[in-house]
Amino acid sequence: MAKKKLGLENLSGFVFSTDENFNEKEYLEEGNYETPAPGEQELEAHFSNKGRGGKTVTIIKGFQGKEDDLAALGKSLKKKCGVGGSVKDGEIIIQGDDREKIMSILRKEGYKVKRVGG
């Protein structure tokens, strides 16, 4: 099996600075960064049942921004779909295979969404 290459999208949590006195923790705690507008974000809708006892879930990846905004988006999606789920490790996990419904909801809110996998 070929090893997956890591791209720059995996560096979304890093802040690069040439300032020698730059402290990333202080920067993040002070809230000096903003969540990009929905139209500037490209999300991915994945389907998975691995590691969940055969139960299917829809995973939304690629959100950039504050954890509070991610949690609010996750709560909104769960409420609109009428299902459970969680927000972990920068991903929104929604119970069931509702990719099409979730993708249409996200598109109405202005996000760019791409279907990934089966």
Automatic annotation (TrEMBL):
GO terms for biological process: formation of translation preinitiation complex; regulation of translation; translation reinitiation. Residues 50-110 form the SUI1 domain. Transmembrane segments: none annotated. Gene3D superfamilies: SUI1-like domain. Pfam families: SUI1 (PF01253). One of its GO terms (molecular function) is mRNA binding. Keywords: Initiation factor, Protein biosynthesis, Translation regulation. InterPro entries: DENR/SUI1_TIF (IPR050318), SUI1 (IPR001950), SUI1_arc_bac (IPR005872), SUI1_dom_sf (IPR036877). Belongs to the SUI1 family. This is Translation initiation factor. It comes from Christiangramia fulva. The lineage of its organism: Bacteria, Pseudomonadati, Bacteroidota, Flavobacteriia, Flavobacteriales.
